[in-house]
Fold:
Amino acid sequence: MVPTTYYLVLAAVIFAIGALGVLIRRNALIIFMCVEMMLNSVNLTLVALAQQWGNLIGQVFVFIVVAVAAVEVAVGLAIIMAIVRHKDTTNVDEINLLRG
Amino acid sequence: MSLLFFAFLALIALIGASGVILSRNAVHSALFLLLNFVVFAVFYIMLGAQLLGVVQVIVYAGAIVVLFLFVVMLIGGDIGPVRSGLRRYARWVAVVSMAVFLLIMVLGLARSLPPDAPAAMAPEAGSVQVVGQVLYTTYLLPFELVSLLLLVGMIGGVVLARRYRSPMEE
Structure:
């Protein structure tokens, strides 16, 4: 039996890696993948704690988070496609249309 | 034994996560992401959440990674150097701040539970029947709202991805 703390620490490490990716990568697609990774690590935390406390609410919550993540990917990738069509780049530093 | 298995899987998950942010080709990033998602599905099953393990494979590994790969193939996977456009010190600031963030989180999490707290849930507690029972009775309203959200997301995706045509052309 693996202690729940190990799962929590692993999820924290993967969350930090994802956040680091958001900070150092400039490609919108990679940033988006990192956001998905961070969502996933939080899901792991919820599932681990659901098992720890014998409570199903955590699993139901993860179920809903997965659905929201799927919607987010569909809309986000459509936005990236629209940006590529408009500016022909995925570099977030060059997407500065709203900068004054 | 199960601890050894966990360590092995954790190593693979970390390799996948690092691969996503370090590889220069976006296709490789998407495939590393797939590796990470599949390992997470195994974690869910180890934690007694069989339904979520299967959902993880179908939704994340099946749908989301394929969608990413579609877009990467569509707009070209060759992305260039990892740190293009970043000032040199900005990268190190990001690394150090994330290291501090991780340290704080691990210190907090390591003390949040007693080291030998027993797991309260039976292994079959995350089966389709049990989770479905809760989802369709207690959490029926959130579940239906999620279906509405999926509909809105689908319409939004179609509208955004459609080629824009200005009224002047028509």
